[in-house]
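dude i think i finally got it to work??
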Amino acid sequence: MTANLETLVIAGYVFADGLRFSRRLGRPPEVTDEELIALAVCQSITGITSDRQFLRGVGKLLPGWFPRLPDQSQYNRRLRMLTSQMVSVQQRISELLAVGGLLVADGTLIGVANYDGCQQRSEFAGTAAYGYCAAKSQYVWGVRLVLLTDRHGLPLGYTLVPANEKEYEPVRDLTTSQPGCTLVADKGYWGRSYVETLALQGVTIRTPDRVRTADNLEREKHLAGLRLVIESTISNLKCQMRLEQHLANTAAGLAQRIAQRLLALTIGMLLNALTGLLPRALTADDGR
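look at this
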């Protein structure tokens, strides 16, 4: 088996079909839910953010695979309705691949609007907020994606919070089902009370020391290497899959776009594990 776009789409369909989604009453749609999830995986891995552009290009990317396609509005609406199913498929696959014992947490900002008065007039009003992006030295009006992965960068859990919200509580909530694990995080998670709170739920947190010395140099390098793993996962989502250009107009639309990208990433990591490739090396899958 080779890792390529066709294999990725087939895997998306097979895993979606394995969950046996509940069927709607009435006339069955021409394009099934499983086919839509396979299409969503294809769209994410190819990095085509426009639904209309993607649907026009399906015939070239996968000639003969999807003789019937929904129009852009139907595709967008039905995918939003399938967000929870995509999350279920992604979680099912991650359970097969996850390496326990050590988790890595980090957050990243996602802008959702950039026009004057967006705080009042945008559909994200009440959900988004202004947050500072240190990497770009700018303020972003949007949300913060808080992500939890294993040591290989496999997404295990995530949540969305306003951009100005700290990551302490979201990460604590994400680790409640992981007692006995070690959590690696950056200096933003410093704090004795936070360490004690996590210890009460059986989680040991490891963060960089405030001062780097000759005595802790090896430990600091090891922690930096682990944090680089989750930064690489975020880079997959934002760069290859173009999450920052998501084109979502509502919170539900953004949740759907994040879910389909995490599903595509997880399936790609599964195929890489089966073929002996590096976990997050997805360039062979993107069809470019």
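The CA atoms of residues 135 and 272 lie 30 Å apart.
im so relieved honestly
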